[in-house]
UniProtKB/TrEMBL annotation, chain A:
The lineage of its organism: Bacteria, Bacillati, Actinomycetota, Actinomycetes, Micrococcales. The keyword Transport applies. GO terms for biological process: D-alanine transmembrane transport; L-alanine transport; L-isoleucine import across plasma membrane; L-valine import across plasma membrane. Pfam families: ABC_tran, BCA_ABC_TP_C. Keywords: ATP-binding, Nucleotide-binding, Transport. SUPFAM superfamilies: P-loop containing nucleoside triphosphate hydrolases (SSF52540). Residues 34-281 form the ABC transporter domain. GO terms for molecular function: ATP binding; ATP hydrolysis activity; L-isoleucine transmembrane transporter activity; L-phenylalanine transmembrane transporter activity; L-valine transmembrane transporter activity. This is ATP-binding cassette domain-containing protein. It comes from Brevibacterium rongguiense.
From TrEMBL, chain B:
Pfam families: BPD_transp_2. Keywords: Cell membrane, Membrane, Transmembrane, Transmembrane helix. It is a multi-pass membrane protein. Residues 376-411 are annotated as: Disordered. Residues 385-396 have a biased composition (Pro residues). InterPro entries: ABC_transp_permease, LivM-like. It comes from Brevibacterium rongguiense. This is Branched-chain amino acid ABC transporter permease. GO terms for cellular component: plasma membrane.
Length: 288, 411
């Protein structure tokens, strides 16, 4: 079926447009955007996360690190509503996120990527980003079926901002390729673009460089820094310590579900507890 | 970590990915070429070609082509009506199974509800208030949507096989209710259902059980309207949400898609179309009882969707028509139709799991604009200036691409 007639107009990527967040954020730069207080998650008898508290300040890149099984991803999942917290609280701009549905948390401003890539394989890269952008859209069944003006407005925004985001992460040349046919590095970047599309206040990246070689990791870290410079706040899980040191403003270290350190990277490097828990164990680095 | 050469391993990975890509490309080359050709036509050319196809579809029973015709065993116009009816059913079921990825084995239940709505409000055997037949079509859709939501609300929290089993039960429940509830008259059924108005030159009714032609034209017209509306849904937030749910429900939810609402919407949309088809069937046959709504027919509907290619409107329309056509054309095979479709489906799953007519759905209203833009950008001749975004050769495994914008800023 050909698409219904729409006002014809040439399309072009706006090269200089910023992908900065378009939303009002209640807290100012440097103030706590997200507060995690006494967050505890238990699976049966196992306490995966034990009274963990930390703040994420607006405009920073916070690293969440720890050896395998330390509870990093559990912490992520509890924040984004995938797991139910046993106790404690997660607040975004002072509003609690616990008890909200996953899609409501995303629309409240917390977007994430997945450690094991979970794109919509059959959809093109641009369509994947469109799903993220749709989090801010309100067209429903009737509006879509009858193509009301809002539908056209939103569709237009999708191709403009969608292509901008793809260009921003550096994969605009494959915008129309199905996500599953994209090279691995492109898929990782597409995950970031899709999360950015939801216009998050906090972007949570779960080991975005997993499976990358050192050169690719460097490039990705540069991208993450650019994301921060555009005005986003970033929470980064990564267990390659060297990498985290270079990119983060502050680091929270978890071990066995407990927070053992919370400081700037240079101080973390000197922290004896961290060295004992983490740096001493070469074995944790090999799968990087 | 540093005692192996990263470059060597990258090279190997790239070759592997390259081979994989080449394989995929080969597999989809033919359909891709056709799709490319179609996408390259201008809007006007596309519409004109569609117009020809639609005109041929309308004229099919009039032309009554030899070899293809189902006569003398079955009246060709009525056969065409049945094919169109199955196509409409497949179109509705495709929303649920093909787009939202919800396995619904009880779709026949909605079909039955639609048929009974038409019977109860128009049949001479019914004690209900009688309304004009054409008014039962929207009424059937409304009633089936209510049934769809009533079924969906408690069950759409289930996934995959569990949902399939519950919907299978739903289909059977509807059939058994038709048997048990005295008002629905079980095997006796309802006769003399209403018909659309209209008479021919001789003053005889236009729509009769023995004259399939006007019924066929009515259903084809409805199919066109439904296909256009579903196409609108497909290239919108709704269609994207459905496909996202099919691809990865958890990821969709985390990307801000209210999955439950959209699954319910898919269920309701599918139910409405099923009900519409049921009411049309009741009207044409003029008789509704509890014998036509069994599980095998439900599976046949599903076969039509799978055969045509899940998620592709044109494909499932053809799939529905084929499933209806084969037993009508080869009447000696009709008794074995489940055996034949079973074998065909098994073969299809082995050799062509994407269905006979696979196509990637377009999910963006302005998708063609992007396609044109990408093509322009990737054209080799470029005026002076920095490298355009699309000009990089599509090297396999090229994961080191920089953002072009940043690259330009650096130079």
């Amino acid at each position: 079926m050909p698409e219904a007639q729409a006002p014809e107009q040439e399309f072009a990527i706006n090269e200089e447009a910023a992908v900065a967040p378009e939303r009002e954020i209640a807290v100012s730069e440097g103030e706590p955007l997200v507060e995690v207080t006494d967050l505890t998650v238990t699976f049966g008898g196992l306490t995966a996360l034990d009274h963990v508290s930390f703040d994420i300040r607006r405009g920073e890149i916070l690293g969440l690190i720890g050896p395998n099984g330390a509870g990093k991803t559990t912490c992520f999942n509890a924040m984004t509503g995938v797991y139910r917290a046993s106790s404690g609280d997660v607040r975004l701009e002072g509003q609690t996120l616990l008890g909200k549905k996953k899609h409501q948390i995303t629309r409240a401003g917390l977007a994430r990527t997945f450690q094991n890539i979970r794109l919509f394989g059959e959809m093109s890269a641009l369509e994947n980003v469109a799903v993220g952008l749709d989090a801010r859209h309100r067209t429903g069944m009737i509006g879509a079926m009858l193509r009301l003006p809002r539908h056209y407005r939103e569709e237009k925004q999708i191709i403009e901002r969608g292509m901008e985001l793809l260009d921003f992460v550096g994969i605009a040349d494959r915008a129309l390729h199905p996500a599953r046919d994209l090279p691995y590095g492109y898929q990782r970047r597409l995950e970031i673009a899709r999360a950015l599309a939801t216009d998050p206040k906090l972007l949570c990246l779960d080991e975005p460089a997993a499976g990358f070689n050192p050169a690719e990791k460097e490039e990705l870290m540069a991208l993450i820094r650019t994301v921060r410079d555009e005005g986003y706040t970033v929470l980064l899980i990564e267990h390659d310590m060297k990498l985290v040191m270079g990119v983060t403003d502050r680091i929270v270290v978890l071990e066995f579900g407990k927070k053992i350190a919370d400081d700037v990277p240079s101080a973390i490097q000197q922290d004896p507890a961290v060295i004992a828990a983490y740096l001493g164990e070469e074995a944790d680095d090999v799968d990087a | 970590m540093s005692n192996h050469s990263p470059l060597g391993s990258v090279g190997a990975t790239q070759t592997a990915i390259g081979e994989e890509l080449a394989d995929v490309t080969k597999k989809h080359k033919r359909t891709a070429a056709l799709r490319q050709w179609w996408n390259d036509r201008s809007r006007l050319q596309q519409w004109l070609m569609l117009l020809v196809v639609v005109a041929l579809a309308y004229l099919l029973p009039v032309i009554n082509p030899p070899l293809i015709t189902t006569e003398p065993a079955n009246d060709f116009a009525i056969s065409c009506f049945n094919m169109a009816l199955y196509a409409l059913v497949a179109l509705g079921l495709n929303v649920v199974v093909g787009q939202a990825g919800l396995l619904d084995l009880g779709y026949i239940g909605f079909f039955a509800v639609g048929a009974y709505v038409a019977a109860l409000w128009t049949s001479s055997d019914s004690t209900f208030v009688h309304i004009p037949y054409l008014a039962t079509l929207p009424l059937a859709m409304i009633v089936t949507v209510v049934f769809g939501i009533a079924l969906g609300l408690p069950t759409l929290r289930l996934r995959g096989d569990y949902l399939a089993i519950v919907t299978l039960g739903f289909g059977e429940i509807i059939r058994l209710l038709a048997t048990i509830i005295p008002g629905l008259k079980g095997n006796t059924g309802f006769q003399n259902l209403g018909r659309p108005p209209g008479t021919n030159a001789d003053g005889e009714a236009l729509f009769t059980a023995s004259n399939g032609l006007p019924w066929y034209w009515l259903v084809v017209t409805i199919i066109i309207i439904v296909a256009v509306l579903l196409g609108n849904l497909e290239r919108s937030r709704v269609g994207r949400a459905w496909i996202a749910i099919r691809e990865d429900e958890d990821a969709a939810e985390i990307m801000g898609v209210p999955t439950f609402n959209f699954k319910l919407a898919a269920f309701g949309t599918g139910a409405a179309i099923g009900g519409l088809a049921g009411a049309l069937m009741g009207g044409q046959v003029g008789f509704v009882n509890n014998q036509k709504f069994d599980v095998p027919t439900s599976i046949l509907f599903l076969a039509a969707v799978v055969l045509g290619g899940r998620g592709n409107k044109v494909g499932v329309i053809l799939g529905g028509a084929i499933v209806a056509y084969i037993p009508l054309r080869f009447t000696e095979l009709a008794a074995y139709k489940y055996l034949i479709f079973g074998i065909v489906l098994v073969l299809l799953m082995i050799f062509r799991p994407q269905g006979l007519f696979p196509a990637k759905a377009h999910l963006l209203t302005y998708g063609s604009r992007i396609r044109r833009w990408v093509k322009k950008e990737q054209a080799p001749a470029q005026p002076e200036g920095g490298p355009p975004p699309g000009s990089a050769p599509p090297a396999p495994g090229g994961s080191t691409a920089q953002s072009t914008r940043r690259a330009r800023k650096e130079t």
